[in-house]
Design a protein that fits this description.
By secondary structure, this protein is of the alpha+beta class. The chain has a single domain, classed as Nucleoside Triphosphate Pyrophosphohydrolase (Alpha-Beta Complex), CATH 3.90.79.10. The strands form 2 sheets. The protein has a 4-stranded mixed β-sheet, with helices on both faces. A hairpin with a 5-residue loop joins strand 5 and strand 6.
Length: 142
Amino acid sequence: MIDVAAAVIENREGRILIARRKPEITLGGFWEFPGGKIESGETPAICAARELREEMDIHIEAGEILTETTHDYGNGKVVHLIAVRAILLGGHMRLHDHDDIRWATVNEMGDYLFAPADEPIVERLELEHAFAKQSRRREGRA
């Protein structure tokens, strides 16, 4: 099993950073929450910060775990994906393993084809969004 951390970076407008994998790499063309393999001794938050520095040249502050998923891609490749909440601190975004990025709202995420291991993260965000919307309605702030 491969342990992977993914950063769910939300900006001030409530949009979340998603990235499309380059066509020539594994799972090319799929959208994902950026991150990478957790190295020995790393926490998911530390890994996400390191991976985004290496892959996108950006600095984030990663915090609590949002959700964890496990997906079997076949041929013995099982991914344990740990999504952590994060905020963007700075940097000049450059893409290495990706060919496009978007700042998407939770409602827009259904328009993108996510990697199978990332789909449960989208589902979790959709549930949180629906719950928050319902709570605002009850409080008369919808």
